[in-house]
Amino acid sequence: MRVLVADDLTNVRSALILLLAEQPGLQVVGEAADTFGLLLTAESQNPDVILLDWELRGMASSKVVHLLHHILPQVCIVALSGRPEARQEALTAGVHAFVSKGAAPEHLIATLHNLEKREQHKHASF
């Protein structure tokens, strides 16, 4: 699974990249520090999943989600936020999952694997 990490804090991006690098089957294909970099990197790298800091600098995240769905209709978007109250806004905007930044790293990994299984199931031939 090809993952793009978007967070404006370098230390958060680095921690996520290190965590993902340890996971078999997950490959970080890019990173972005703002919404404009995210859109450019997403278009050029065509990731399967985008980890999106819900408070990412640039334009409103709900607008970014809309643009990402237009540019890459197949991409799964996981919103990350330190504000649990952002969950409903993110899900309403069209993200596939929401993970609190305070959650255990295993929760994020489990979320990614669940998305992968769901996508494989959608594309399975019967």
Explain this structure to me?
This protein is α/β, with parallel strands linked by helices. It has one domain (2-123): Rossmann fold, CATH 3.40.50.2300. 48% of the residues lie in helices and 21% in strands. Strands 2-1-3-4-5 form a five-stranded parallel beta sheet, with helices on both faces. Helix 4 (86-93) links the parallel strand 4 (76-81) and strand 5 (97-100). Helix 2 (35-45) runs parallel beside helix 3. The longest helix is centred in the C-terminal third of the chain and has 19 residues, at 105-123. The model has no long low-confidence stretch (mean pLDDT 93).
Could you say which structural class the secondary elements and strand pairing correspond to?
Answer: alpha/beta
User: Would you identify the CATH architecture?
Assistant: 3-Layer(aba) Sandwich
Please report the distance between the alpha carbons of the first and last residues.
23 Å
Number of domains: 1
Count of helical stretches? 5
Helix content: 40-55%
Strand content: 15-25%
Query: What is the gyration radius calculated from CA atoms?
Result: 13 Å
Mean pLDDT: 93
Strand order of the largest sheet: 2-1-3-4-5
Question: CATH top level?
Answer: Alpha Beta
Largest sheet: 5 strands, parallel
Give me the CATH superfamily: Response regulator
Which overall shape is indicated by the principal axes computed on the Cα atoms? globular
